[in-house]
Design brief:
Chain A: This is Rieske [2Fe-2S] domain protein. Chain A: It comes from Paenibacillus pasadenensis. Chain A: Keywords: 2Fe-2S, Iron, Iron-sulfur, Metal-binding. The structure holds two protein chains of two kinds. Chain A has one domain: Rieske Iron-sulfur Protein. By secondary structure, chain A is mainly β. Chain B has 13 helices and eight strands. In chain B, helix 4 packs parallel to helix 5. Chain B is globular, with a radius of gyration of 19 Å. Classes of the chains: A mainly beta, B alpha/beta.
Amino acid sequence: MTVHVVLREEELAVGEARLVAVGERELVVYRLQDGFYALNNYCPHQGAPMLAGRVGGTNAPSDVYCYRYDRDGEIVRCPWHGWEFDIKSGRSLFSERVRVRSYPVVVEDGKVGIRI
Amino acid sequence: MAANAAYPIIDADIHNEQEDRALLPYLPEPWRSRVAGSGIGYAMSGYWSPVGVMRKDALPPNGARAGSVPELIVEQLIEPFQVEAAVLTGVVYNISTTHDPDYAAAICSAYNDYVAHEWLGKHPSFKAAIAVSTLDPELAAREIDRLAGHPGFVEVIISSAARFPLGQRYYHPIYAACERAGLPLAVHPGAEGGGLSTAPTAAGYPSRYLEWHTNLSQMFMAHLVSFVCEGVFVKFPGLKLVLVEGGVAWLAPLLWRLDKNYKALRSTVPWLTRLPSEYVRDHCYLTTQPIEEPDNPQHLADLFNMMDAENMLLYSSDYPHWDFDAPDKILRKLKPEARRKVFYDNARQLYRLG
């Protein structure tokens, strides 16, 4: 496991995302309220670039005809087919088995690194 | 990224778009002033999707509509996937859910001229569908006759959102003209439930886009049964029908049911001298997108074995729409020879390309 430094903390504001390259890999680094997260720039469904996906919240599971908007800024939608993924874990919101690969992010001395 | 190194691809459904004002030079008065003043004014379904209609990465940086920049289509689709021919289907067939037959026919004519002048020469892969409105089938037939023989137009396209089932005799002038011109007829969804079309499902108006989109296959089932039972393929033996974007997995069970009923009720359709499914096999094609995706991909392959899928399917991407299917990511269970037919040979023969 190596930490690959990809940017400095101040380069990315909360709510922003940035495409970074680590070797052959294209990753998207997201800065959320509580820190940095990294996902593969590749949707497991048909390979769409996740960077182009809109980030927002979603309606959490609820009673019939109730809507509970939640997780604002923590959910990314694939830019093609609209599948929703949790940026913090890479998991899809519809199946335990479907996820975008996620990578641990390490922040040290203002440097944002990805552990691969 | 190339999907099939051994052979190129033909894409049967790409949605080129344009700003409404792009049609103005091709529109006569009084329609030009109408569009200049208030836009084309489609009557769409009204159903809302949180995903939107367009692929987010297909929006041109200059703020133009997705699908309106030929160079971007070439960059995102034609070149990476080695698309040898792309059938530009537009979106103008949706005009059939508006109300004035003369206006709808004028919009279609203007669009067809616009495509002929401003798209067909832009890339060697570009072919196009002649858009016609179903609001006046005689005017539609005249439009098909006008453009017949133009080498860039490879089919005629109409909306599946209609006032009544598409096999009925009211529409037959369109099918006669397609047969005269030697052009397949494509039927495409999109405006179901809008304007003067029927409710978008057999049960009426559902509450959400999720339900609306899922049930579009119902519309195609009803139209297909109508085409067969009304004797369209008997009356127009040269007509080929392309069912675009209506799903494919429903076909086999629908035909089982239709064939079974035919055995008892044949006398109500005495012009059908063969099983209904045989007319479908001889005259109909279905485009693949949005392909059904069961958790176990083998299940779809099994369904394909229950119909003549490898000879009836045409690959389509639906670029730049949200439910785009990448050619290298779907139908991986098909055997190589069947893949080649679906992604290339069937369309090449149907559209007489190459």
